[in-house]
Design goal:
Helices cover 18% and strands 31% of the residues. By secondary structure, the protein is of the alpha+beta class. Strand 7 and strand 8 form a beta hairpin. Helix 2 packs antiparallel against helix 3.
């Protein structure tokens, strides 16, 4: 059983929980509607995302066993696989710009789209859309582009097209998060699964307060993030440019 966009109106503030067959992970944290400060800090400073350990630990243990058995070729392969897993789930330190009226990149990757569009599913208004494609070699943690409260989170099942094509924005499995700043600016973030990526993780839930640059989720193994901003935001990025989540500036509020 899936959830479609008609079941998720903008004023629905209840996070989707308990739907069978869904592929989104939700992490409970702190008081109801407010993540614990300690857990948020822990998540931001871990060198490897905790979702990587179920892959990394077995790979390392198997590599050790292969070494003990003297199977050097297989042990070498195990080392390479372990290193790749650690690299993929890495959480590098980021310097969050301390500037006013900026919009930060929510993800690492290559800009594949910048332009105005009519966003009719959630915000139902004209927006500036910026799309970021994350390859297998990019950091896959997602960060809040601004400080604000999570108004709504919607999970939508879908296909697994290659994430750097435009139609994946509407057809692929995705998770939409609406943030509202202190001065009522609404921003829509859409985590989109790709051809290889088959699992979206989102820690944030309705009512949570996110700090600018804070980690709120990740997408495993190649994916895309679409960012929908008010049209008055002035973008400073271009198609083909590589950006870093929580550090690169997407644009300025005017």
């Amino acid at each position: 059983m899936g959830v479609n966009s008609r079941q998720n109106p903008l004023n629905a503030s209840i996070p989707f929980r308990g739907f069978p067959g869904r592929k989104i992970d939700e992490e409970e944290a702190g008081e109801e509607g407010t993540p614990g400060e300690e857990e948020m800090s822990e998540r931001n400073r871990q060198p490897i995302a905790r979702e990587g350990y179920p892959f990394l630990i077995p790979a390392v243990l198997l590599t050790v066993v292969l070494g003990i058995l003297g199977w050097k070729v297989w042990m070498s392969l195990g080392i390479l696989i372990s290193l790749f897993i650690a690299y993929f789930f890495r959480n590098p330190r980021r310097e969050i710009p301390d500037l006013q009226n900026i919009i930060l990149s929510p993800a690492d990757g290559r800009i594949v789209h910048v332009g105005e569009c009519q966003e009719d599913r959630f915000l139902k208004e004209k927006t500036l859309k910026v799309s970021i494609f994350m390859s297998l070699f990019d950091v896959h943690l997602n960060r809040a582009p601004v400080s604000g409260r999570v108004l709504q989170k919607n999970y939508l099942p879908g296909r697994f097209l290659v994430a750097n094509v435009e139609k994946s924005s509407l057809l692929n499995e995705q998770n939409a998060v609406i943030l509202e700043t202190e001065d009522r600016l609404k921003i829509l973030l859409v985590q989109i699964a790709g051809f290889v990526a088959r699992r979206i993780v989102c820690y944030a839930k309705a009512g949570d307060l996110l700090r600018k640059g804070e980690i709120f989720g990740l997408i495993r193994f190649g994916s895309r993030v679409d960012l929908y901003l008010p049209p008055e935001v002035k973008p400073i990025v271009r198609v083909g440019q590589h950006v870093k989540g929580g550090e690169s500036i997407i644009g300025y509020r005017t």
